[in-house]
Amino acid sequence: MDDELELNVNDDFSNINGNFAFYNSSQNLVRYSGFQAEPLPAQDVPEPASSLGLLALGAFGMLTRLKKKQTQK
């Protein structure tokens, strides 16, 4: 208010879902402005090993089935 800093919230908020809210029931015409958000750089997410395991298991099953068909001929 009047070019004075009224509220300063400074934290990394890494343990919350990203929402930040104000509730003001005493001043219904108040307007908040001057908010700044600095997004964090995106980080790579490693591919889960379970996907590779399922792929390998599927390939093994297909090879086993093909070999079984070849021996039956």
Could you walk me through the main structural features you see in this protein, from its secondary elements to its overall organization?
- This protein is 33% helix and 0% strand.
- It has one helix at 49-72.
- The longest helix has 24 residues, at 49-72.
Key traits:
73 residues; mainly alpha; 1 helix; rod-shaped
What is the strand and helix layout of this fold?
Elements: H1 49-72
Please state the average pLDDT score: 77
Strand content: under 5%
Helices and strands, in order, run as: H
Counted by DSSP, the helix tally is: 1
Please identify the structural class as seen in this structure.
mainly alpha
Shape: rod-shaped
Radius of gyration: 29 Å
Could you tell me the number of beta strands?
0
User: Largest sheet, described in full?
Assistant: none
Helix content: 25-40%
**Span of the ends, CA to CA:** 87 Å
Low-confidence stretches: none
Q: Quick summary of this structure?
A:
With 73 residues, the chain is mainly α.
